[in-house]
Design a protein that fits this description.
- The chain is α/β, with parallel strands linked by helices.
- It has 2 domains: 8-99 and 270-294, no CATH class; 112-255, Nucleotidyltransferase, domain 5, CATH 3.30.420.
- It is built from 13 helices and 5 strands.
- It has helices spanning 8-17, 21-24, 27-31, 49-62, 66-76, 88-95, 126-132, 168-172, 191-199, 221-232, 237-247, 253-266, 275-294; strands at 112-122, 137-145, 152-159, 180-183, 202-205.
- Strands 3-2-1-4-5 form a 5-stranded mixed β-sheet.
- Helix 9 (191-199) links the parallel strand 4 and strand 5 (202-205).
- Helix 4 (49-62) packs across helix 13, helix 5 packs across helix 6 (88-95) and helix 10 crosses helix 11 (237-247).
Length: 299
Amino acid sequence: MPRHKRDWEQYNKELINRGNLNFWITKKSLKFWKAKKSKKIGRPFAYSDEAIRAMLIIRFKYKLPLRELQGLFESLAKFIPIPRVPSYTQVCRRMRSLRVESLLLDHKCTDLVLDTTGLKVYGEGEWCAKRYGGRSKWVKLHIAMDPKSGKLVLAEETSENTHDTALLKKALSRCNRRKGIVLIDGIADSKKCYELSQRHNKRLITPPNRRAVIRKEPIYEKRNQAICEIKGLGGDELARSIWGKLTGYSRRVVVESKIAAWKKLLGADLKSRSKERVKIEVKVKAMIYNMMVDGLRMA
């Protein structure tokens, strides 16, 4: 696989552009800042979803509390044509019903790479919670990405006890029906995962269990081949490493680098507490990450 040569001049421009507020607050969001008239019962919304989404993007990108977010936009209103600025309580309430699902994926990919990580909800550390008591809670973040574009096609939170492959079916539904590969770590070495991948015309590449044996079912054909290849290379850790490079499994490292970048740029913890807001926060952060990958000026 040829080594990617980075255009440093363009890369530096993209990094500088991330600090430009016009990159995050688009003309579309300003144009449709006020909500359209609605026939629903009750008081209509004063601000559109685009307005709330723009404020949340700034909040999570720069790690701002809600009150500081309101203050920032009130100061920006002196320089940017913002009609009115929602209060921090309005942003908090509207976040629960915000629609962001359709904005995460703009095309169907062929290949897929999946991984999971943990995000902190309560508390700063496990030691403090054990020593002094208090809430110590994590959520599990499931990430699926297109290895060609580097963009996220799925980012969802679940409870920490959810299996790592629980969202495999949903991730595969974001792919097209062309022949492709799915890269997951060894936890996906199961009949269910092989069947799901085959149903979507994808080849699952995952290292078989160290004690794996040859099975007769047709669904295990590629798995049996992997077992034979690893044993033929020596059957040790070095053999598994060589097998990963020969089969392309080593490309799974790209999703691990995405997780590291997520935590560095957007934080390893969550500002939201309720289940509804946590779900929206994860999706908005995924949108932010895709916008940074695009590196295009949103104007």
